[in-house]
Structure formats: C-alpha cells, structure tokens
Write a structure and sequence with these properties.
Structural class: alpha/beta
Distance between the termini: 18 Å
Radius of gyration: 17 Å
Order of helices and strands: HHHHHEEHHHHEEHH
Length: about 200
C-alpha cells in the first residue's frame, strides 16, 4: 500500500481548480499562497503526538479529549481553527478489543494542523477504497497484524469532521515523561495504520 502513490492526479486536479478560481477572479495567487502558508504554519505530527502523550499521563485530559476534543485541545495550546471553517475533531481510542483507522473516501480530508501534511498513500485511491472494504488486509500491508477478536472501525473524515486515533500506550513506558512518550507516537499511529 505505502508504495502506491496516486498523489500526482490529485495534485493536478487541485492545480486545475486553483487556476479556475484565479481565472474567475474569485481569488488571487497570492491569496492562495497566504491561505496555504497559514494552514501549514505549525502543522506537524508533533502536535498530535503531544495530544496523545498528555492523554496517556493525564486521565482527566483523556476523558475530556474523548468527550469533546475541540474543547480539550486548548489545554495543550492547539485548536482546529485556522481554515475556512472550524472543523469538529473526534478522537477515537484504541483498546485491547478495538482498533480505529482513519480515511477520507471522497478526497483526503485530514487534520493537517495536528498531523502535518498527509502522506501520499492517504490520498491514494487504493487506500481510500480498500481500507473501508478490507481494513485488516490494508493494516497488514502496513505491518500491523491485529488479533482476530479485535474489532476494527474505519472512520471517514469529511470537510466538517476530522478524526485522530488515540493509540494504546505501549507496555513498559510507566516511568517515561510526557516528551519521551510523545517521541514514541508516529503519524501512522495517529491515523491508525500503526500501533503507535
């Protein structure tokens, strides 16, 4: 899966849309560049990892995050604001019996501010279509083999709603600090294609 890249067709469609908007006078090239720069400023998987690490060490924060992620994010200096509209963030927690994975079947909706720019495989048609039909097979291609009794739920992001996976805290990390824990979290873990 990770070797299949369909980002070139997506990029071409995006560029055609940008050109049409500019030609129609809806927006200028400089405005598009400024909007993109504002959206990407500070966007990094480090943000998502900080959220996870805090949830691992602070049970109250974890509960608030799972209940209303948008309201909990300011506690770690983050928010889902900054785009055209504020998006709703839902955090889904992996457990010993449940595993979550994120996709956007229509395009590539994704919490950029919390995970950085999306990986090319996330935008690929192969990932978007297959993960909903055969999530276990796709996860296995990423190297994640789940027990047969683990329920797998696929969450479909949209323009209004984004998702972030709260991975299970690895065994043997009881004495680790919050920054040390954050360093264990990968972007793939936040999407659900890896354990952490």
């Amino acid at each position: 899966m990770s070797g299949e890249h369909a980002s070139a067709p997506v990029a071409a469609r995006v560029r055609r849309l940008e050109e049409r908007l500019i030609e129609a006078g809806v927006v200028g090239e400089e405005q598009l560049d400024a909007a993109l720069a504002a959206m990407l400023k500070g966007a990094s998987p480090v943000n998502g990892a900080r959220i996870v690490a805090r949830a691992w060490v602070d049970e109250g924060f974890r509960a608030r995050l799972l209940d209303d992620a948008n309201a909990a994010l300011p506690e770690v200096g983050l928010s889902m604001a900054g785009g055209i509209q504020e998006q709703r963030l839902k955090v889904v927690e992996n457990t010993g019996t449940a595993h979550h994975v994120i996709v956007c079947t229509l395009c590539s909706c994704y919490p950029i501010g919390l995970l950085g720019p999306s990986p090319s495989w996330y935008k690929s048609e192969a990932y978007r279509s297959r993960v909903v039909r055969e999530p276990r097979a796709v996860l296995a291609e990423f190297g994640l083999e789940l027990p047969a009794d683990t329920a797998v739920t696929v969450w479909d992001s949209s323009a209004e709603s984004r998702y972030l996976v709260l991975p299970r805290r690895p065994d043997g990390t009881a004495g680790m600090s919050e920054p040390e824990l954050a360093a264990l979290v990968t972007r793939e873990g936040l999407i659900g294609t890896a354990a952490v």
